[in-house]
Design a protein that fits this description.
Elements (H helix, E strand, L loop, with lengths): L1 H16 L8 H16 L6 H33 L1 H15 L2 H16 L3 H9 L11 H48 L11 H28 L4 H11 L8 H12 L2 E3 L2 E3 L2 E3 L3 E3 L8 H31 L8
Antiparallel strand pairs: 1-4, 2-3
Length: 327
């Protein structure tokens, strides 16, 4: 039961305070290690196979170190004092969730649009998306913000929640290592096509089930948010594989259908037009209020996932009493 309560505390802490900003944040430390590994290992003149193997070495080394170190540290602290171990594990859980950060950053875009400051809205949007924002109009800015909230629900909230519920903070941190690797080197471009390929594929595997669970939870949340569940299900079934990633469009398709809008489509990235299919049906234009709706849907999905996940974990623990189930 200890970890179940700790995960709840961590999520509530993120809900209230948001992600803490300080130099020793676990994800920031992972980012520094990845950047150092990239600089040390990757060379432009290396053969493709060598680059792939070095990228795999960096990925597996980081994930192993993160899991082993956090597990050993928590194990030691729990042996000394249960409250001390629980406090550190709660802190880890708190820093793994990204729901509040996702809401805060997207709502900065909303408030800028609400004040008719489109330049500021473009600037805030540029902090959370990879596409070029300098020429986007209000509808496309709102659309990009909605897409970001919908797409990042899985890897920012539900996926880490699932791994935390399965294996506590060590497994949750190992997942964040995979996710951070993908966000830094998992690009299919000239620079990282081979060096980051393992990280990208591993992220696809790690998010495969969580992305689909997130989509189903979002469908349920659409009912509680009084959105169009039937349209959400229709678009999910039709458009959930329209992204290059097998996971990214799972939640985005539900969100598009539930809101009755069209998301995704072609955009410019570093001045280059990247053609992508649209997701959803344009039953109406995207407006700035949809950013608020997307965040409401994101948080409703998150709370549903938390309570359902806690319930399942408690049930499993209850059935496993006396059978060697740990915590």
């Amino acid at each position: 039961m200890t970890v179940t309560v700790i995960i709840f505390i961590g999520f509530v802490a993120d809900y209230i305070f948001g992600d803490p900003v300080y130099p020793w944040h676990p994800v920031r430390l992972m980012g520094r290690i990845i950047a150092a590994g990239d600089k040390l290992l990757r060379r432009e003149n290396y053969h493709h196979t060598t680059l792939f193997l070095l990228g795999m070495l960096l990925s597996l080394s980081l994930i192993t170190v993160v899991y082993a170190f956090s597990f050993a540290l928590l194990f030691y602290l729990y042996k000394i004092n249960v409250l001390l171990g629980a406090a550190l594990e709660a802190l880890f859980c708190y820093q793994i969730f990204a729901a509040k950060a996702l809401q805060d950053e997207s709502m900065k875009v909303y408030y800028a649009l609400a004040q008719n400051d489109i330049e500021q809205a473009r600037l805030y949007l540029s902090y959370i998306v990879g596409r070029d924002t300098v020429s986007l109009n209000e509808e496309r800015i709102a659309k990009a913000a909605v897409e970001t909230v919908a797409e990042n629900l899985s890897d920012g909230v539900i996926a880490p929640m699932i791994y935390l519920l399965i294996g506590g903070a060590p497994l949750g941190l190992a997942y964040k290592a995979i996710n951070t690797l993908d966000s830094m080197i998992g690009y299919n471009n000239e620079k990282y096509a081979y060096f980051g390929k393992f990280a990208a594929r591993l992220d696809d595997v790690a998010n495969f089930l969580p992305a689909r669970i997130s989509a189903l939870l979002m469908l349920l949340a659409s009912f509680f948010c009084q959105l169009n569940v039937r349209q959400g299900w229709k678009v999910f079934r039709r458009d959930r594989y329209k992204h290059q990633s097998p996971n990214s469009a799972q939640t985005e398709s539900v969100c598009a259908g539930a809101l009755g809008v069209s998301l995704s489509g072609s955009n410019y990235y570093h001045g280059v037009l990247v053609t992508k299919p649209t997701i959803g049906d344009p039953l109406r234009p995207v407006v700035k209020e949809d950013i608020k709706l997307a965040n409401k849907l994101m948080y409703t999905t998150s709370w549903l996932g938390l309570f359902l996940g806690m319930g399942i974990r408690i049930l499993v623990l209850a059935l496993g009493q006396g059978k060697g189930v740990y915590r």
